[in-house]
Design a protein that fits this description.
This protein is an alpha/beta fold and about 240 residues long. The protein has a single domain, classed as Metal-dependent hydrolases (TIM Barrel, Alpha-Beta Barrel). It contains 9 helices and 8 strands. Strands 1, 2, 3, 4, 5, 6, 7 and 8 form an 8-stranded mixed beta sheet that branches. Helix 3 links the parallel strand 4 and strand 5. About 45% of the residues are buried.
């Protein structure tokens, strides 16, 4: 099965990334993708865009040259209470909120505290996807997190970049996929690309879910309709323009 939707990428608005929205669209079209989500980092990371960047994402058309665009953010988990750097004004203009651990925003603690923070984030009604939960630098009680994600209709990401830039995360990602499969939850794929050439690359993620025999009907990237319906359940917003894709 082909997965033609990428739900995690970064543009030059995150200054450690190197491509524009337009460059992503060009690459997405060449690769036959249907939808991309622009998910630049939240402000707590330090080299991230101003909150106006997220509020003004409404100016980006829904479909450009046949590619659907989701307006999103990869927010930072800030504390044990699950607060993130996406305020109400930003949230109103966004379609998709990823949230994850990043060292500049919140240092790793012990496995119990990391789990507490992640489950609190899952309970945050703004959050749709937990980004790179397999990060070996932030150990968690995987089964507990998977159960909470299932309960609160939050997908856990199998982040393709984790297999490359977060060395040693493979086993965690595999255990996450197994736990989500067991509890009946959802996963998402994200390239976590920081340059347009990587958009839609799920090579490592696909190998892992094949190895785990993960059911394709619980991977939200499987179709535009699946993504739209997944977001509508949590946000109450149905993005009708993308249903034609």
């Amino acid at each position: 099965m082909q997965y033609l939707i990428d739900l995690h990428m970064h543009t030059v608005a995150s200054t450690h990334a190197y491509s524009t929205v337009h460059e992503y669209i060009v690459q997405a079209k060449q690769k036959g993708l249907k939808i991309i989500a622009i998910t630049d980092h939240g402000m707590a990371l330090g080299d991230s865009p101003h909150r106006w960047h997220f509020i003004n994402m409404r100016v980006i058309p829904r479909i450009v040259d046949g590619i659907g665009i989701l307006r999103g953010i990869e927010a930072n988990i800030l504390n044990l209470q699950g607060d993130i750097d996406c305020d109400d004004g930003m949230y109103r203009e966004l379609d998709l909120v990823l949230a994850g651990f990043h060292e500049p925003a919140m240092a790793s603690m012990d496995i119990d505290k990391n789990t507490e923070a992640l489950i609190a984030t899952i309970k945050n009604p703004k959050v749709n996807i937990i980004s790179h939960p397999g990060n070996r630098n932030y150990p968690i009680h995987i089964y507990e997190v998977a159960k909470a994600a299932k309960e609160y209709h939050v997908a856990l990401e199998i982040n393709n970049s984790s297999f490359i830039s977060r060395k040693g995360s493979d086993d965690n990602c595999r255990e996450i996929a197994k736990a989500v499969k067991e509890v009946g939850g959802l996963i998402s794929f994200g390239s976590d690309s920081h340059v347009a050439y990587g958009v839609g690359n799920f090579t490592h993620s696909l190998a892992l879910i094949k190895d785990c025999n993960f059911p394709t009907d619980r991977i939200i990237n499987r179709s535009p309709q699946a993504v739209i319906e997944f977001l509508a359940i949590k946000t109450g917003r149905y993005i009708e323009e993308l249903a034609t894709l």
